Amino acid sequence: MNRVLLVEDDPDDLELARLAFARGDFSSSIDVARDGAEALDYLLSPDREPPQVVLLDIKLPLVDGIDVLRRVKADERTRHIPVVMLTSSALDRDLHACYELGANSYIVKPVDMEQFMAAVNNIGVYWLSLNLTETHS
């Protein structure tokens, strides 16, 4: 079974993403972290199998998504995990910072509900069905 970590503090976006994954039928287990500190605890825990992909928002409580990305990509145990930035920020500085730190993809959340769900579904198709990774090939 595919495991996805969704790091999202907005309850509406969280529910839409879950619904999109359910509709896509990826046989995925969706784990949720609602802030950056919870995401780091999840990802850096030695007792947990890493997710196949992380969907990471930038604007998070406690630890922002850019800092989460920085720490995940700097750690030998987690740097191979694909991280897709799924954020409302279209700022060039955020885009540049995320790619500099090793983000695998950067997607600005569509405002329209159906477009948002289609974007999340496309993420699932690519990262869970098409893409091969070192640990889940």
Automatic annotation (TrEMBL):
Gene3D superfamilies: 3.40.50.2300. Residues 3-124 form the Response regulatory domain. Keywords: Phosphoprotein. The keyword Cell wall biogenesis/degradation does not apply. It comes from the Bacteria. CDD domains: REC_Rcp-like (cd17557). The modification 4-aspartylphosphate is found at D57. This is Response regulator. It comes from Dactylosporangium fulvum.
